[in-house]
Amino acid sequence: MVGITSLFEIGKRSLLASQSAIQVTGNNISNANTEGYSRQRVRLEDGLYISTVPGQIGSGVQAAEVLRDFDEFIELQYLGKSSEYLRWDTLSARLQDVEGAFNEANTEGMNTALARFFADWQQLATRPDDSNVRTALLADAQNLQIFLTGADSRLEQMRAQADAALEDDVETINGLLRDIARLNVAILGAEVPGSINANGLRDERAALVRTLAEKMDIVYLDNGGGNVTITTKAGQTLVSRGEYFELKVEGPQAIADVAAFDGSIQFSGQSDHEYLVQVVTGGALGTAQFRVSVDGGRTWLADASGNDTFSAQAYANRITLPDGKLDVWFTAGTQNLQAGDIFEIVPHKGVYWYENSSSKMNITPRIFPSGQEDASRITGGSVAGICAFRDFYVGRYSEKLDALVKTVVWEVNQLHSQGTGLDPLTGWTATNAVRNTGVALGGADSGLIYGEKLTAGNLSLSVYTDSGSLVRTVGLDLDSGTTGQQNFDPAVHTLEDVRAAFDAVDGISATIVDGRLRLAADSGFTFAFGADATGLLAALGINTFFDGSRAKDLRVNETVSAEPDLIASGHVNGAGERNVGDNATALAMAALQHKKVAFTTTFEGTVQQTVQDNYASLVALIGADVSNASFNQDYHKTLADDLARRQDEVAGVNLDEEMTNLIKFQHAYAAAAKLITTSDAMIQTLLGIKN
Amino acid sequence: MEQLVVQSIARQAKGAQLLAMLLEEEHRLLRAGTPQAVAGVELMVQELVRQLAAERALVRRLLEPMGVQRVSELMAQMEDGPRAKCAQWLQALEEGEQKSARQSMINMDLAEALLQQTRGLLARIQRDVLPRESHVYTARGMWQRRAPEAALVHGRL
Fold it and tell me: Fewer CB within a 10 Å sphere, N or C end of chain A?
């Protein structure tokens, strides 16, 4: 009812509304420096209207709700940019560490070590019988090995650090998901639409979502009423209302997607790639054929002969994949492999999304060798940065370093194995083992490291007496039962065949010990090798200078380092003679410095470069990657900062504005009080009429 | 005349280095989100580029009466001392230009990205202020059919 007494009610409401507004303003002022706090304000609305004469009269004001100033649209943009920024920031910081490890001093050191190594061979060509030159060569070769293995071990350390960081990040992510789900429930319980808003909880949740976006790329869906769903960009649900789905970091494993096969695929070795194994011909082990891809099935790995299908074998005949990094075999089940069966081999730590306790999905960030990103995996945040660093960047550097070592070892050993030192040999045990002595040496199941380098042809060896007189020079005959000399064929001949062929040479005995060929001169004889068109000697590791095939296992051959006179400086000529002062091998070795040789990697294919140019290209690649990551980090940070500034303009507390509001509401409060005193005066006037 | 050419190249080299510095400053300001300050630096950049172009034209005019078209041809005729000096300035000029080119590309990418970002936000604001229905009431309360175009100052706010 309209009357003087209703003025008291209007005044009271106004006082309360102003009090609320001042309280909220005070809260804003006190939280001006609170991280993640969003400015709040009271939504005032006019009260009910009462129809009377002269018309509708209002009943004052009421504080309807406390609103939070926060721009969801800008926040969504920010989350995306923040993910991108953190991805590049993480990558950039880690790549700078790599650059530090391969810094200019190291480059100089490596170049100097390489130059010294080749210069020593030049020196040896000048003075083949000088033991000081031989000792210096061994020392410089060991120095070169220290540089290469050192670089590899630094990369390995960085990989281990990345693994640890990945585990930390995933643990943090799980904590965030749990807390966001908890806040979802709390907000849903606390809010009454239109009157009570859980502003503090929403701020808390927004801060957690920001941290989550820094760890991985997310899609944030507000379903209304405080209920949000968060998924990965690829679509895996992370949080839905009060539920959350955990991520886990798991070690190397193979995941099968098969029709009926109930055996398993097994692997050994280490690689930065993920392998897709697809069965192309079904059947039992030994019959079934499969192919392998490192880019999700876009291209298929092929061996040196261009063959891209391999036989599915049991452990004894396991297949070494063409990149030489993994051995793959199958265990038999009651059901055979079928065409179309697929296995995914993840030979390193990966991130898995668990939909329930038994169903998981590999969401490890992945960049294909072509540089294209796998959009079905995590693509942003520090997790993507760490995995890209570990698998794509360090993986490429490692692969390039290994390719460099593999080529240097092969080229040096090729020349060395066909040369001869100051003394002929009395025996030699091959350094490279064969897994199965009964299969063709050139096949993927032989397990011979340089098996793909073998070619059809022959090699010659000469047998001498103890005093050095030539007894005979023969070519290796792979089938003494057939008339004439039968050449070696890598697609046909096994280590057992090679052993038999060597053993058939008068003056030489050949045996196989632990998959390695052992040659020994019979009593009273010595031997030396001539030209080898097959590559057998270098591939098996006979009369070689270096051992190993990767940066981590490179070393100078123990026999040579123990007996420097065996360093091959000369060669055996066509007549089977070893001449004093011959320097043909040393000269060829020195010339290797300027010779373009083949380096093969999965991301570059085969390139022809000199050894030094190849190392320089590795350092240049690292430099370019650092520069690119640094630019992207800078770029995305600027855009993220811009959006953060825009959000601050909306949600940030401006003390000047709050002070103005404070005075405004103070005046409103004073005016409301004045309304009450005026009403009181009016009543006093009415009561005074009686007196 | 020869000395005038070398002096101009020296000025160009110093100008190119200053240009690179200005572009780096512009980059810093872009990152800090201060467009007004960026505009100030950009004006200086434009003026410097104009002066560098004028120096280039001057060198060309100086070369003509000497019967050569390129500085390298002139250098072939110089004595060892001045030639070394000229080569040194040319190298500094080249370095300054390369650095400026790289930095200006980075600045352009950044400015373009910020523009796109702002454009996206503006498009969203425009979408928000546009009535969902094309039929609206005018300020006088009259029913009116309107084209659904953005009209920030057209009375419907």
Answer: C
Query: What does DSSP assign to residue A522?
Result: P
- For A279-325, the pLDDT digits (tens) are 999 999 989 999 999 988 989 998 877 888 999 999 988 998 988 88
Write the residue in A73, A635, A637 that is nearest to B109 by C-beta.
A635
Kindly report the number of other CB atoms within 10 A of residue A647's CB atom: 21
Report the candidate in A242, A160, A172 with the shortest Cα–Cα distance to residue A214: A172
Which of A642, A646, A648 to probe the B interface (max B CBs under 10 A)?
Answer: A642
Report the distance separating Cα A39 and Cα A647, nearest Å. Answer: 11
Query: How far is residue A465 from each of residues A424, A462, A506, measured CA to CA in Å?
Result: 10, 10, 12
Q: What distance in Å separates the CA atoms of residue A168 and residue A156, rounded to the nearest whole number?
A: 19
Closest to A261 measured CA to CA, from A317, A318, A338, A201: A338
Query: What residues contact A639, with CB distance under 8 A and at least 6 apart?
Result: A81, A84, A85, B113, B114, B117
- Do residues A281 and A326 make contact, with C-beta atoms less than 8 angstroms apart? no
- Crossing angle (nearest 10°) for helices B80-129 and A611-651: 40
ipTM of this complex? 0.74
Q: How many residues does chain A have?
A: 691
Structure tokens at A314: 């049991």
CB-closest option in B106, B114, B124 to A639: B114
Instruction: Return the number of other C-beta atoms located less than 10 Å from residue A69's C-beta.
Output: 16
pTM, to two decimals: 0.86
Q: With an 8 Å Cβ cutoff, are A77 and B121 in contact?
A: yes
Q: List A residues 625-644 in contact with B (Cβ-Cβ < 8 A).
A: 631, 634-635, 637-639, 641-643
